[in-house]
Amino acid sequence: MPESFTLYKLIVLYMLEKVDFPLTTSQISEFILDKEYTTYFKLQKTLSEMVDSGLLRVETTHNRTLYHITEEGSETIHFFANKISPAIQKDIDDFLVEKKFELKEEVSIKSDYYLNTNHEFEVCCQIVENGFSLIDLKLTVPTEVEAETIANNWNAVSQDLYSLILSKLL
To answer: What is the pLDDT of residues 135-168, one digit of tens each?
Structure first.
């Protein structure tokens, strides 16, 4: 593996070790591509290799991919964080401080759908905070188009719906 791929892997591990939540492909890409550390295709190869080697665990839904650092990934960055230059570490730290609330909010709202045994689509919508579910909402709809629409709209309306449900129930 070329030295640059090692650096890309360490950057991803460093990012994930610094936060207490998973990061999406787009969140990782935003930092690495904006700083012009590598190309999109090299980053995708890096992420794939990290999953294959057990450094990352992947959680995939219909509309995004979340990356979680594994215990092996944590051990790796613990031993090799010194291989990342202080300037890059500062760039990562600054990015995470600046964007932490946005990053965390984006991954705390989850939605997915699947075909159930009645040949209808079940949509699972969730808001998670500190590893605990605030709301788990399951809806059954007849078509995949409706399921996909609900899953895609959940991110934009979840907070309002959560507040409305709480106000109606309390």
So the answer is: 999 999 999 999 999 998 998 899 899 999 999 9
Residue 37 CB contacts under 8 Å (≥ 6 apart), including other chains: 7, 8, 11, 88
DSSP type of residue 82: G
SS3 66: strand
Amino acid at 114: Y
DSSP 26-63: HHHHHHHHHTTSS-HHHHHHHHHHHHHTTSEEEEE-SS
23-24 and 65-69 as β-strands: parallel, antiparallel, unpaired?
Answer: antiparallel
Query: What do you get for the CA distance between the two ends of the chain, in Å?
Result: 57
Pairing of β 121-129 and β 109-115 = antiparallel
pLDDT at residue 3 greater than cutoff 80: no
